[in-house]
Amino acid sequence: MKPTKPTKPIEPTKSITLQQKSVSESDFISTVPQPKCYLCGTEGHILYSGLKDKLFGAPGSWTLRECNNRSCGLVWLDPQPLEEEMLKAYRVYYTRHSNRGGFAAHADDLHEPQHSSGETHRLSFVGRAFQYLKRGFLASAYGYTKNVNLWQELAGYLLYLNPLLTQRIHHGVRLLPCRMKGRLLDLGCGDGNFMLFMKSLGWQVEGTEVDPQAAELARKAGLTVHLGEIRKLGLADESYDAIVLNHVLEHVHDPLAQLKECHRLLKPGGQIRVLLPNLKSLGHQKFHRAWRGLEPPRHIHQFTPEALRLVSEKAGFECEVISLAAGAAFFHQSSTFLRQKKSSSTTPLGWLRRLSALFFALKESLLIMRQPLIGEELLMVGRRKRDFQVGKIGIAMAVYNPNPQHFLQQLESIQLQDFRNWICVIAFDSPKEELLSDPSIARVLADSRFMIHENKFRMGFKLNFEKAAREALKQRVDAIAFSDQDDVWYPHKLSRLARELELHGPGSLVHSDMNFFSEDGLRAEQTVWQLEERGVGQVHSREVLARNVVTGASSLFDAELAARFIDIPDEIDFHDHWFALVASLHGGVHPVFEPLHAYRVHAANVVGVVPFEGILRFPRHSPMRDWPDKLRAGWLKVHAIFQAATKSGLRFRWLDRVMHGSSGDFGLFLFVQGLVLFRRDRPLSRHSFMEGAGKFVSLFLPAREEPAE
Questions:
Q1: Mean of all residue pLDDT scores within the chain
Q2: 312-348: b or e for each residue (b if 16 or more CB lie within 10 Å)?
Q3: Which range (158-162, 339-343, 494-498) has the least confidence?
């Protein structure tokens, strides 16, 4: 299509920014028509017309079209500026000045301020205190423990009392967990403020920037910045552990090609974060054409959650799209000025406007709990899929004197799995002849995928599961699943768990919720997780040490890691607890909030389903004089598990070592953890209180001597 130019000059706004320059004829931006949606090809209708750049004075009058396809909803400029003309829209943009004032600024203003030389501004006492608490918060929430001591991490928990502030801190690291010395690429890095912050947290940072002046500002701070469009830089394949696009994707003409290039640059399992304005936000619903997120002509595309998910999946990412309210106050203030046709960078902020923006941010933060995609910004949390596929699953089943009918139901449910490439090792801890003489059972076991082993002597359920897993690993499987002898698996159980394990990659364990029913077949209305109030989201090793959240029969575990840690220490009572602990220190323990099998409850269950009965529950009919000994025994048990795991080669973080490996804190940290988790995870809160009390008792109250017989 033939580029067009406006026929007459457009008067620049006079009070745009302090740095704005006059606009000459050579500044006019050439355009090309774009009547159809970039993503799905559907024609669009006009959403807004006659839009002008009141922020930075770029010339032109602009129209936005909205895609008629509701499953997409992309909004774009029509006509669009030519790519080679886009620098004209950035002549006085905030990334060219060290006194920042744009989208990146509202997120990064919680970072420790930096000069372009890289030197840190002197902070007030309140500022230093906040930085101290923030680093402690990031250590506990994301693992950024570099130069953070134990007391600082505990102090960081105080910030949970201010949800608006914690949202800003989450936003500030783009929800990226720590990867010490991992390589991070900030695409469209501007003046490098975010890069400096992430470098201070332990990342090896690089950036790309198309604006030479912005890139020079970042380089003055000692940062590595590649100048040019990312597809023309020739960066090596699979070079980075994480890539961040902070308000970048809406600026580019070809966002799909941009994301595909990011996919090429990421290592398998590498993470990507894409942050941009949310067209379905509460702010856009309120301010409409004056909403700060539109910003023509620099924002070529405006994304809905559906459009962002669509373009991310087309690029090959496994992704989730969420919204954030961290910038709600900034968006509200800027949009208010734009609606009043004033400049958001030169007009002073009155206390009424500040208060109004604060109330708006609080309102959005509360509404986002019920309407998760109403925040001012969208965040795509994505990952490049690892080269890890679950092609074959080994099922380890431990059997001891099963009910023949129940045993048959378990076998048939395994045989009917829609994931077909499995082998099932059945380790009998009791004589098998009578059971195998049942014609129905013999018919099922004729399937060559079942492999039968009989122990020469009684091993017990834990060692029997260990033996079954060992035999399964000999079959070169990719993952290990455990099976009880009398449950019923749903047909899609293995395929669902396999997909989830592939998503999280090597070293991971995934586990699902369960329905449960009694011996007579009556199914309960609640699931196991609901009845026991399991805090399955807690997967830190310090929580798994205190109490196990994984039921073996609901889990699937990376076979390579299982082989490395196949020897279960004597101090650990349950096989599933051991493998959950191992996974928590490697790829993580990941829940699937869906019942994938029916757990049978009967008198012979080793554990069974135990409803949560309260924070201060003690065994019934337990005399008060016995409580100190019971508390002491609980602490010593967890302490013994920690020591045994350490001897087995597991490497724990310093907080794990302090909480479970020593008595020097008198149980204080466990009490603090119990208080913090009181509302979020009551079972873990109870375990923390009890373990902390046991640690205290073991130091100050002597054990009662047993009377001589």
A1: 83
A2: beebbbbbebbbbbbbbbbbbbbbbbbbeeebbbeee
A3: 339-343
